[in-house]
Prior knowledge:
This protein has helices at about 10-15, 60-65, 70-75, 105-110, 130-140, 145-150, 160-165, 250-265, 325, 335-350, 365-375, 380-385, 400-410, 420-440, 450; strands spanning about 20-25, 35, 50, 90-95, 155-160, 175-180, 185-190, 195-200, 215-220, 225-230, 270-275, 280-285, 290, 300, 310, 330, 355, 365. The protein has 15 helices and 18 strands. Belongs to the protein kinase superfamily.
Amino acid sequence: YKRKTGESVGYISDEYYSGQVWYVSGENDEQLIVHLVCGCLDDASQKVVTYTIQAQDTLIGISQLLSANENEVENLNKALTKDPNYMDIGWVLFVPQANNKIRATKKCKKRRAKKIKNDEPKAIRKTQNAGKTTLENQFFNVDMEEAASNIESEKPVIISLEEIEQATNDFDEARKIGEGGHGSVYFGIIRQREAAIKKMRSSKSKEFFAELKVQLFGYASGDNHLYLVYEYVPNGTLSDHLHDPLPKARANIALDAARGIEYIHDHTKARYVHRDIKTSNILLDLGLKAKVADFGLTKFIERANEDDLIATRVVGTPGYLAPESISTMQTTSKTDVFAFGVVLAELITGQQALARDKQEPNKLRTLVSLIRSIFQDKDSAAALEAQIDNNLKGSYPIEEIFKMAETSFHCLKEDPANRPEMRNVVTILGQIVISSIEWEASLGGSSQVFSGLFDGR
């Protein structure tokens, strides 16, 4: 391959060879010898193709795409034997073809291991889904543009490390906008889009597998780091605005966040548990629409069994942890439901999830205990009214605030089996938003809640 100015080996592998470069000779030379992933089976009757794993791929999906047997794919790839449900972006899988259903092209038949490639290859990663598109084009003779139009267009693209470095001014501290346990976040402009760029160790990439609500529109790798490029959400987090009036937004923010959590629980190919739902992980855009963020602790669970538990260490944030997370160190989707119940309580009261008790400053009080005490009171409505954030009073009918608090209470049940599913929470919050709008309309539409209709909600 004849290297162009500014092209790194990693960029060449990703851009032109679907990430399937095994190693390169003459790495510092202009003329490179590119060694591609290739091999032979003892059984000549069976063909094997290579496939580079893309974001959101599953073993079942890859097997279906290539007309392969899922168990045979698993057996041929030793990396999958420990946990077939976990695959990392960039892995190259060997996929045996069932009964030679897929006919290799002449180009494939001529390919040999350690073949020297001196001419410039045709770029095969010009679309956002080039990994899958290339395979479909190569084996099914599907036109590249037609194939791209049939695939979801919002999947992330590979971005060169050079672009990442330029956008962040070589990771200038002045560009840093956040830092967490899994890496630092920088602001930059990539391809004319404002972006939040997360830099993390490659060894941690498996822990950041499902960024689903805040849009991931690109990624890069190099220098033992993984770089994730997200849309930039400029209005900070819900925790930053918790004590602001937010007269038109609280029920809508709750609904947006609930929909985000419901999405990873019920509407993805694989089922995920976030494990760190909290107000500082809910981002707000300029229109105060909420987006769930920071999936650094997200875990995959089998969709087939709703009761499957994930054995784990204690993870999450104090004040939001469900009882079973602490007592048994196990997690289900109901753990996210519990944490969301705390978020609802914060929206209603304007108080932090965990704070010093006003009556006993040496002790900490959780919103969990506060919400439970409200609904254990003989006059729950009066007890709730005493705790409602003053900024919220008059913005919503008290009946709807009570329903929101009641939803929080059900989410905070001790027994996970007694907590609702997020889909049920979404339904209830949707009804609260509609009722609030109707209430505003009855007052002549002068309030901030009603004006939310004109902000595109």
